[in-house]
Design a protein that fits this description.
With 290 residues, the protein is of the alpha+beta class. A hairpin with a 2-residue loop joins strand 8 and strand 9. Helix 3 packs across helix 4. The protein starts with 14 loop residues before the first strand and ends in a 13-residue tail after the last helix.
């Protein structure tokens, strides 16, 4: 993986590189690049641009909000640094990035992807995890950056409320408004596990709109605490705009754990279908999920 450092406008063939990424979102102002602010995208692009000696711009599977973590984020970029994409050495890039990057973000995998691969538009499913603790002393200091303290809850009503939201619906009540973007999503999984004081929500969908996951968790948590009913949660699907009655759960309990993609032969068709379903927000990022 020795770049030939050909300038970007040389007309050289461009290789598409897929990155698998993990980060602790505590000290980042989210994924998306913002001038003068510390973001995951900004830190990664700065380091990659130094490695390849050309401007690198990342396209991401899902733009996470400030404080949200990831262990399975996916992004891609194009580079003219290779005469032949077969020269790319993924493990070497992972090793080099470990030297360039701060300790709260890591590239965990890198490989050449087909030209049709798009980290955002090719994705067929995104998986999130939200963690809470009902321990009377709150979150353990060693896990407090990733686990949110909450009151004691009844788990079965929470599971019932979560099941009532599954399927293809307009989740406008759970999403912050973004001009030109649809709030129709297919929620494929929303369930809860308990391990002692630890509560874990697992949420999967074809995509998520802005703040949707944390709003889903906040609404269902209100049921578990006895402040709302299962019927109230199900009724939110009938609303056409964001509900002020839904409390957004804190960001630091949320992690993007995985993104699913189709087989290489199906990438182009998936890109077309996704673009037909959703308008592209500014900055070319993916859905937010936070």
């Amino acid at each position: 993986m020795i770049p030939n450092h050909m300038p970007p406008d040389s007309g050289a063939p461009r290789a598409r590189i897929r990155l698998d990424i993990a980060y602790d979102g505590t000290d980042f102002i989210g994924w998306a690049r913002q001038p003068g602010l510390r973001t995951v995208q900004g830190v990664l692009e700065e380091s990659l641009s130094k490695v390849y000696r050309e401007p690198i711009q990342l396209t991401v599977a899902g733009r996470t909000d400030a404080g949200v973590h990831a262990q399975g984020q996916v992004a891609h970029f194009d580079t003219a640094a290779f005469d032949d994409p077969a020269d790319f050495d993924g493990p070497k890039l992972v090793h080099r990035m470990a030297r360039f990057l701060p300790k709260d973000v890591r590239v965990t995998g890198a490989r050449v992807a087909p030209p049709e691969f798009d980290a955002r538009f090719s994705a067929i499913r995104r998986h999130y995890r939200y963690r809470l603790t009902t321990a009377p002393y709150g979150a353990d200091p060693l896990t407090a950056r990733w686990i949110v303290p909450c009151r004691p809850v009844e788990l079965e009503p929470m599971r019932e409320a979560s099941r009532s939201l599954l399927g293809l619906h307009d989740f406008a009540a759970f999403c912050r408004r973004r001009d030109g973007a649809t709030t129709v999503r297919e929620l494929q999984r929303f369930d809860w596990d308990r391990d002692g004081d630890l509560l874990t929500a697992r949420v999967s969908a074809d995509a998520f709109c802005w703040s949707m996951v944390r709003s889903l968790v906040g609404a269902v948590l209100a049921v578990g605490e006895g402040r709302r009913t299962v019927e109230w949660v199900a009724g939110l699907l009938g609303e056409s705009s964001r509900s002020s009655a839904v409390t957004v759960a804190p960001a630091h309990g949320l992690s993007l754990v995985a993104v699913d993609y189709p087989a290489d032969a199906d990438l182009a068709a998936r890109n077309i279908r996704t673009r037909e379903m959703r308008a592209a927000p500014a900055n070319g990022g993916g859905c937010c999920g936070g």
